[in-house]
Design goal:
Length: about 140
C-alpha cells in the first residue's frame, strides 16, 4: 500500500517544510538531502517525502539511480555479470515480490558496494525495486 500523499498539516509539518525549503533548490530536494533532513528532524524518510508532496516539491537524484537524474531521468544500467553473492542476496530479500528500497540499501551496506550496483543488478535480473523509502514510487 502506498503512503498517504496528502498528510494533515500540523505544527510539526511547518518545521519540516522550513528545513526542506532551506535545503531545496528550485523546489527540488535531492534524495541525500531528504534523508539528511529526516535524520536532522528525527522523523521518517516517508514523512519527509509526504511533506515534499504536500509542498509540490520534487525529489531528485535517487541514490539507487532510479529517478531524478538528467538527461534520462534514471541512470540504472542492467548488469549482466552479477556477482553470485549479490544475486543471492537480492533473490533472498525479494522472494516473490519487488525488492524494497530499504532492502536494496541494506544489501549494498552488507556487501560494501554502491547502492547503484544493487539497482543495476536488479535491472539485469528483471526485479523491480519498490517501495521507495521517501514514497516516490
Amino acid at each position: 500500500m502506498k503512503p498517504d500523499k496528502n498528510p494533515t498539516i500540523t505544527e510539526d509539518t511547518s518545521s519540516i517544510q522550513h528545513t526542506i525549503s532551506r535545503k531545496a533548490i528550485d523546489r527540488k530536494l535531492g534524495c541525500i538531502a531528504a534523508f539528511e533532513s529526516a535524520a536532522e528532524l528525527g522523523i521518517s524518510p516517508q514523512t519527509v517525502g509526504q511533506t515534499l508532496d504536500q509542498m509540490d516539491y520534487r525529489i531528485t537524484h535517487c541514490q539507487l539511480g532510479l529517478f531524478g537524474h538528467s538527461p534520462d531521468k534514471k541512470i540504472v544500467i542492467p548488469e549482466k555479470n552479477i556477482r553470485p553473492e549479490l544475486k543471492a542476496a537480492i533473490e533472498t530479500a525479494a522472494k516473490d515480490s519487488p525488492l524494497s528500497c530499504l532492502e536494496a540499501w541494506n544489501i549494498a551496506a552488507k556487501l560494501q558496494i554502491p547502492k547503484t550496483a544493487v539497482s543495476n543488478a536488479c535491472e539485469g535480473m528483471g526485479i523491480k525495486i519498490s517501495p521507495c523509502q521517501l514514497g516516490a514510487f
